[in-house]
Amino acid sequence: MKKSLILLLTFCGLGPGALAQQKSSYNAYELFHPLWNYQSNSPYRAGSGQPGAAYWQNAADYKIVASLDDQAKKLTGEVEITYKNNSPDKLAHLWLQLDQNSFSTHSRGGKTTPVSGGRFGNIGFDGGYQIAGVTIDGKPANYIIEDTRMQVRLAQALAEKGGIVKLKMAFSFTLPKNGHDRMGYLDTKNGPVFTLAQWFPRVCVYDDIEGWNVLPYLGAGEFYLEYGNFEYQITTSAKQIVVGSGELLNPAEVYTPEQVKRWNQASQSEQTVMIRSAEEVTEASSRPSKESITWKFRCNNARDVAFASSAAFIIDAARINLPSGKKSLAISAYPVESKGDGGYERSTEFVKASIEYYSNWLYEYTYPAATNVAGIVSGMEYPGIIFCGYRDKKESLWGVTDHEFGHNWFPMIVGSNERKFAWMDEGFNTFINFYSTDAFNNGEFKNRKFDMHRLAPMIFRENADPIMSIPDVIQARNLGWEAYNKPGFGLMILREQILGKDRFDYAFRQYIKNWAFKHPTPLDFFKAMEDGAGEDLSWFWRAWFYELWKLDQAVTQVQYLDQDPSKGAIITIENVDKMAMPATVEVELASGEKIRKQFPVEIWQRGATWEFRIETKGPIKSVVIDPDHVLPDMNPKNNTWRPASYRIPASNG
Ligand SMILES: [Zn+2]
To answer: What class, spelled out in words, does domain 56-208+215-226 have in CATH?
Structure first.
């Protein structure tokens, strides 16, 4: 999901904030508490942060037959779910997610919508699912629906360790125009662009941590879904073009022969190949002459599928090269309104670059296609397909495309629980986006160097929420910082200032590989990073992710030995606030010589102040802690020491 715009604006225009000098509130016993993150694991999750010897997860395969009425803006379908219980527990019932039910004034999401609406709000739209014909293994099912959850009570408990049940039902709903900024439709001059997600009943995750995960869909909290294989087909007017998660199985039935030829060219091309141009959108010959068409897709090893449909789509595509030598296909689908001036005509280039970058750095992309759709949704991710704002251009189009496809790694590959831990997908993704953006097209949209002293007052805002909060509990104004930026910058500091790139990347890749298509928890991540990098980081996790602690490093004293600058000096630095970090101190001598000293975070295990000796042959001009502004220091004013009076020798004429 895309970061809000407000936050990007507040990002830039801030000067350094200064706190009044205060007595240190730092407590080494609290920060380095030996029992923090110290707990035994189960056979399911190892102390090393990898899946344990007895790790299990359940699976759900879906077959969906649906039709989209492009006039009534209504979706009707039937789903067959094959659910496999690999857990060691008998299951008396199943829980499903009926997220579409949130789009109703009677829903919890509707009732918790503020008067002003808000990005995830629902005001005045009375939609939601019609559900009928629910059967379990062919027999009528006993079920209840409670808001966005459905419980199916089984006549016979589903056996542990491999029990399988088949659940079928019919469903339909009228599309909300804007469903929590994640689905809906956009009116364009050549017809609506439909973006369909949360469009069929999906099984909740049953895991070893809390059994059934049943948090309702209120809006801010995204998804936690089981992996499985999907076969789905969409029947709609032949004027429509449908793009969806996974592989299109019947291109020859749904495109014209000329377009099929162009698809084949695109699959061999490094450059974007036009499949259906802006001019062709209004030509009847650009669609097969039939009444209606059925589009057939398959998506394997996915946690969800989404699709988009429009008569207005321009379509283009290019080949994606993956590290193993396999290929995928970057596709863009957009209305004519999105074209021009650095708009969606560059989208396929962006998709290709983003997927290739993350595949090389983190883990190889696994789907046969990657599609970017321009529509009403400002930015939202699904396996192999993303929905982005139709007006985005240039940097903003690169940014949203790269961000939403970054999500294919978190949470599509690494299947964390987004409804509880937004930072495990948004924060990780914000972090990887920094590097992808710097690398794109030789730095075309490269970030300016982050000045962490300038960012500190935002990171440590007065009304901040802890990162470790349920997204629905994080205040709307804080979501951009707590779910995206603060965890993103935290990982950047961990990589660049604490562990170094090599150790961080090794541990991070191990985490991704070990948890690909599985369900890690925050603790699994923390332990995996500690194990892979070989460092106890409990102090870092606690201060950055759990608490609202702040960082303030200071230089407090410089004393020459025997009052003689030629004999060296003792320098005192201090950790004023409750967070701690490694320290870098730069001493500049009057001669112009600069000396840098680096200290590990363990100096603060000795208390709030640290003294060190430095060899000097003459007087000191200045001492600066964190001279490169790489740590978010709340009070940079106490970072520099200068002698009470100092005159520059050469310029005092
Ligand atoms: Zn996101």
So the answer is: mainly beta
In terms of Cα–Cα distance, which of 308, 364, 365 is closest to 338?
308
CA 432 to ligand 1 centroid distance, Å: 12
Q: What's the CA-to-centroid distance between 494 and ligand 1, angstroms?
A: 21
Q: What distance in angstroms lies between residue 405's CA and the mean position of ligand 1's atoms?
A: 9
Distance CA 462, CA 382 (A): 34
Name, in order, each residue with C-beta under 8 angstroms of 458's C-beta and a sequence gap of 6 or more.
10, 11, 14, 481, 485
Q: What is the CA radius of gyration of the chain?
A: 28
How many angstroms separate the alpha carbon of residue 635 from the centre of ligand 1?
Answer: 31
At residue 17 the predicted structure's pLDDT band, cuts being 50, 70 and 90, is very low
Q: Residue 154: pLDDT above 90?
A: yes
How many angstroms is it from 84 CA to the middle of ligand 1? 30
pLDDT at 11: 40
Taking the centre of ligand 1 as the mean of its atom positions, its distance from the CA of residue 82, in whole angstroms, is 30
Say whether pLDDT at 155 is over 90. Answer: yes
pLDDT tens digits for range 345-374: 999 999 999 999 999 999 999 999 999 999
Distance 286 CA to ligand 1 centre (A): 35
- CB neighbours (10 Å) of residue 487? 26
Q: Where are the domains of the chain?
A: 56-208+215-226, 239-352+367-396+409-414, 553-651
73/185 Cα distance (integer angstroms): 9
Q: What is the pLDDT, as a whole number, of residue 12?
A: 37
SS3 108: helix
Rounded (to 5) percent helix, strand, coil in the chain = 30, 30, 40
How far is the centre of ligand 1, averaged over its atoms, from the C-alpha of 426 (Å)?
A: 5
Determine the distance separating the centroid of ligand 1 and the alpha carbon of 425, expressed in angstroms. 7
CB contact set of 563 (below 8 Å; sequence gap of 6+): none
The pLDDT of residue 8 is 44
Tell which CATH architecture fits domain 553-651. Sandwich (2.60)
Separation between Cα atoms, residue 354 and residue 405, nearest integer Å: 7
> DSSP strand E in 187-322: where?
193-196, 202-203, 206-207, 211-212, 228-237, 241-244, 247-248, 273-276, 292-302, 307-310, 314-321
Quote the ligand 1 centre to 557 CA distance (angstroms).
45
Residue 505: CB atoms within 10 Å: 16
Confidence of residue 230 (pLDDT cuts 50, 70, 90): very high
Ligand 1 centroid–CA 612 distance in Å is: 44
574 C-alpha to ligand 1 centroid (Å): 38
Helices (H) and strands (E) in the chain, counts: 14, 32
CA distance 207 to 228: 15
Ligand 1 center–CA 480 separation, angstroms = 10
Could you tell me the distance, in angstroms and rounded to a whole number, from the CA of residue 410 to the centre of ligand 1? 9
Instruction: Work out the percent of the chain whose per-residue pLDDT is above 90.
Output: 92
Cα of 408 vs centre of ligand 1, distance in Å, is: 10
- Residue 565 confidence (pLDDT) above 60: yes
Q: How far apart are CA 207 and CA 519, in angstroms?
A: 8
How far, in Å, is the centroid of ligand 1 from the Cα of 304? 16
Does 56-208+215-226 match 553-651 in CATH topology?
A: yes
Cα separation, 214 vs 221, whole angstroms: 12
